[in-house]
Amino acid sequence: MVRGHSFQLGSFLAWAKGLLWDNPHQSWFLVILVIINALGSLYGYYWYRDQLSSTPLIWWPFTPDSPLSTTLFALALTLAIWRKENNLFRLIAATAVIKYGLWAVVLISDYWLGGARIELVEAGLWLSHLGMFVEGIIFIRHWAFSYIDLVVVSCWLLLNDFIDYALGWHPYLFRADQYNLALLTAVSLSLLLTAYLVLVAKYSSRQEKSLSRRIYT
After folding, report:
1. Which of 82, 94, 123, 188 is the most buried (most CB within 10 A)?
2. Looking at residue 48, what DSSP letter applies?
3. Please, where are the H alpha helices in the chain?
4. Which long-range contacts (CB under 8 A, 24 or more apart) does 111-120 make?
């Protein structure tokens, strides 16, 4: 029995690695993620209903950070299903779900560590935002981009931080004293994602140069 269970676990891990690490672009998996992200987006906009009702329309694209991120990601995966990918669009989507997924995990965790009870709603938000972060990590390593894409994405991330914290249109926080943590986490994630993309771009460039040398020697 132990050997049988070990074999089943090994088979499952091999299957999971093949799906999540090697080839996440399987149609059935993309469809499931599109549905999950679409439903999560709808709930997210409902969650932001009070803040949106008191926010000028011009700032709406910068206020519901998480549901907007999952909306973009659902659209990026839909384009992947249709074989009509756009490198810049999907890079924006991937970095957005990574950033705001982890941002929310940090803020909710801090809320709990400050003595708040772990309620079902907050636990669901914590898990769903962790899922955002994970799905972004799964796909971003498979998606090519140019230096121009990198610059645009970096500017987009930092523009969101400026509008959220310099102009004051950030999402409502769980506690008023979380402002500094929210600001530090958001800006740090923007810079870390930019640094990651720069490293990937440099590594890809070196790989291409190395391949060119091999071809012409």
Report:
1. 94
2. T
3. 2-17, 27-47, 49-53, 65-81, 87-113, 120-140, 147-161, 179-216
4. 111/174, 111/175, 111/178, 114/175, 116/174
Based on the structure, what is the number of domains in the chain? 1
CA distance 125 to 112: 13
Q: Which tokens hold the place of 84?
A: 């009509």
Q: Give percent above pLDDT 70 in the chain.
A: 91
Tokens of 91: 């890079």
What is the rounded distance in angstroms from the CA atom of residue 34 to the CA atom of residue 152? 25
pLDDT for position 6: 60
Q: Helix, strand or coil for residue 136?
A: helix
Host domain of residue 207: 2-216
State the pLDDT at residue 12. Answer: 86
Tokens 């803020």 belong to residue: 107
Is the pTM of the predicted complex or chain greater than 0.70? yes
Enumerate residues 6+ apart whose C-beta is below 8 A from 203: none
The confidence score (pLDDT) of residue 211 equals 47
Written as one letter, the residue type at 107 is L
Cβ atoms of residues 96 and 44 within 8 Å = no
